[in-house]
Amino acid sequence: xxxxxxxxxxxxxxxxxxxxxxxxxxxxxxxxxxxxxxxxxxxxxxxxxxxxxxxxxxxxxxxxxxxxxxxxxxxxxxxxxxxxxxxxxxxxxxxxxxxxxxxxxxxxxxxxxxxxxxxxxxxxxxxxxxxxxxxxxxxxxxxxxxxxxxxxxxxxxxxxxxxxxxxxxxxxxxxxxxxxxxxxxxxxxxxxxxxxxxxxxxxxxxxxxxxxxxxxxxxxxxxxxxxxxxxxxxxxxxxxxxxxxxxxxxxxxxxxxxxxxxxxxxxxxxxxxxxxxxxxxxxxxxxxxxxxxxxxxxxxxxxxxxxxxxxxxxxxxxxxxxxxxxxxxxxxxxxxxxxxxxxxxxxxxxxxxxxxxxxxxxxxxxxxxxxxxxxxxxxxxxxxxxxxxxxxxxxxxxxxxxxxxxxxxxxxxxxxxxxxxxxxxxxxxxxxxx
Length: 434
Known about the structure:
Helix content: 25-40%
CATH topology of the largest domain: Rossmann fold
Mean pLDDT: 96
Low-confidence stretches: none
Strand order of the largest sheet: 3-2-1-4-5-6
CATH class of the largest domain: Alpha Beta
Shape: globular
Radius of gyration: 21 Å
Number of strands: 15
Distance between the termini: 33 Å
CATH superfamily of the largest domain: NAD(P)-binding Rossmann-like Domain
CATH architecture of the largest domain: 3-Layer(aba) Sandwich
């Protein structure tokens, strides 16, 4: 409850927390919009493939000319690892680059805030191990849904409740798994021209729609919170906030989950396309289970809505502000030595599933593209089956013909065995972290 006080104290002593941002896209820009208004925080380095674009982003979010002139802009993310900063923020969204930047930052004695969930799900447990061994922080990004879920789970356990389920909301229909960048904008109510004028990337936005981003974030939540991915993948049950405790409980007591302790994503749409009443599209939740009759009685006495057994109840946060909340992670790492969520064990994975039949020699185009979408699976299933992570399914050729709807394996593609992502993933698989 005193993070701003700690930051203010650093400001008063003239020693602000120094941060380097790698990736000045939408998430990074939202962070930059808030940074000038946070005492005790200074963004001294900004890295982007196009430094002029990064400068333009700073101007667009309201930075003064003097602040821009005092900031170092670069195009090499590895330079951030050598910069005189306390925290490196990795916000590129590119798994291979993200892993390289994070490892270099940790090698350089810098805390890491990993906005890049794609990289975190590919090899985050190993980065977290590296950070702990060096006495550093490797953290999820507060404001992004996995970190907010981690906070709710931590609160539930710290107050003595069992976590029956935790996760997020999204807009989902089964047909979305087959959407491509060519037809994505119709589902957002935009024309291609409107999207282009707004600078919106169709492949990135499609990853939110086709289920891939939900799979990645569910895996990140599982890895950080010690929860399990459903054996058949995410169910995306249509569910509003009033029904969380009824739907997200075990089937044995009338719910839709295999057991307690699961990650699940709920949809803001009924299967026929009608909107769910009081949906959680932009939010996160945790379903609590009372561990005694006394605790269940307290639920009733204090007006907490429960399921019909009286044992299950839900807490939720209806919105998240993405990059605008990111400073919480930066300040927590530097001033408290704490992560706002962090991979602890390999419990979940996001693997590539074909959107259409593909021929040998065709090149996969990764998250949100034309060829594959990402499905959440238990890490044990991924390791046992040698499944292809969605983070490695970009710019790799197929070695054989595959049918539509097929879960791909590592052996189905030609990988660059020198790539950091491939090396770290093979380390995780032998043996699998758990």
